[in-house]
Amino acid sequence: MGPVSERYRKPSTSVLDLIGWTPLVRLNAVTDGARTPVYGKCEFVGPGGSVKDRIGVAMIEAAEAASTLQPGGTIVEATSGNTGIALAIAASLKGYRCVFTMPDKMSHEKVKLLRAFGAEVIITPTAVPPDHPDHYLQKARSITAATPGAVMADQFYNQANPDAHFRTTGPEIWEQTEGRVTHFVASAGTGGTITGVGRYLKQRNPPVRIVGIDPEDSLIGPFFNTGKRIEGHPYKVEGIGNDKIPGALDLSVVDEYRTFSDGEAFRMGHRLAREEGLFTGGSAGLMVHGAVALAHELDDPDALIVTLLCDWGRALPEQDVRRRLDAGERVPRAPAPHERRRDARGEGAARGRPDHRETLDADPHGALDTHCA
Ligand SMILES: Cc1ncc(COP(=O)(O)O)c(C=O)c1O
């Protein structure tokens, strides 16, 4: 065990003081021998277990400061889970009611967790266009309008979101790397993280490269690369990508955008648990996959890549995997150790796309642990 961090030597006054200052950990085995160091920021370490802990309290305090949120008021949000948990934690300490709308692709565990924190959760269909009244964002807007004393946290447009990352996540990464960070690799959901961290790091050192990672079938990456708005389609990774460009995302701080598949995300998620002891959500799998690909391309021991381990993999219990197995879903199996060793020597396909022909059935022992967020 390492030394006790300075911040834990003294007791904290409330759970809100435990938000932020997450650890930065070097990724080892999953980099397959890349010479460029890759570090993951452990956002799963915190009261709500995700990067959203930072913006939950920040958006509530911004609404309090603007007097739009009064004592006893209601906070409404369209959330894929983590922001809801973060808002619910801060709201429970501050005495606000929470009502959340959530698309039905999200895990049952996230819904149960939100309810455990006292929030009301309304489930909406995933496969509806963004302007449909049943879309989770439109639903949250109509609930806010119909509820006296309600404010919508509006993480997709609220500038308190990127500002929280500019004030906290960015400076932490700068300090933890002693200013040596050269690349920040992250996906955008609302865009708050990549925007706030990107702005801060570029302010400190303009050549720092900000690399966006998008799930296939999200609109953001194609829009960045072509200027065209493709029609987004549902995908499995939770919390990242979008079917529109959110107001909290400032694409001018991003230098390049890369797209990877659900399968690549889940496969790396599986490897993170098995080889690094990091049980993260699927979005971290996608970002780490992109960060490792970049590390091989750079092949530079003096560069330093930081990516985000956005949340804890609680969305992955057995019944979720069983449901997907029953549906005959194809998820690439993790390579056996001897295959990984071959890949590390560059003889295999680890740096390319995984083999999607493999199904969970092909890996009966690993199947129930396969990382499907
Ligand atoms: C699990 C997870 N990862 C990553 C992100 C992306 O963060 P941001 O919304 O700041 O772009 C989110 C946000 O929704 C998330 O829930």
Question: How would you describe this structure to a colleague?
Answer:
- The chain is of the alpha/beta class and 373 residues long.
- It has two domains: 246 residues, Rossmann fold (3-Layer(aba) Sandwich); 100 residues, Rossmann fold, CATH 3.40.50.
- 35% of the residues lie in helices and 13% in strands.
- It is built from eleven helices and ten strands.
- The strands form two sheets. The chain has a six-stranded mixed β-sheet, with helices on both faces.
- Helix 2 links the parallel strand 3 and strand 4.
- It is globular.
- The two termini are 29 Å apart.
- 50% of the residues are buried.
- The C terminus is likely disordered.
- It binds pyridoxal-5'-phosphate.
- Pyridoxal-5'-phosphate binds next to helix 6.
Q: Can you tell me the CATH architecture of the largest domain?
A: 3-Layer(aba) Sandwich
Indicate the proportion of strand residues.
5-15%
Largest sheet: 6 strands, mixed
Mean pLDDT equals 84
Tell me the structural class. alpha/beta
- Percent range for helical residues? 25-40%
| Fold-level CATH name of the largest domain | Rossmann fold
Shape: globular
Order of helices and strands: EEHEHEHEHEHEHEHEHHEHH
CATH class of the largest domain: Alpha Beta
Q: What's the number of domains?
A: 2
> Which consecutive residue ranges, at least 5 long each, have pLDDT under 50?
317-373
Secondary structure tally: strands? 10
Number of helices: 11
Bound molecules: pyridoxal-5'-phosphate
Alpha-carbon distance between the two ends: 29 Å
Spatial strand order of the main sheet: 1-2-10-7-8-9
Radius of gyration: 20 Å
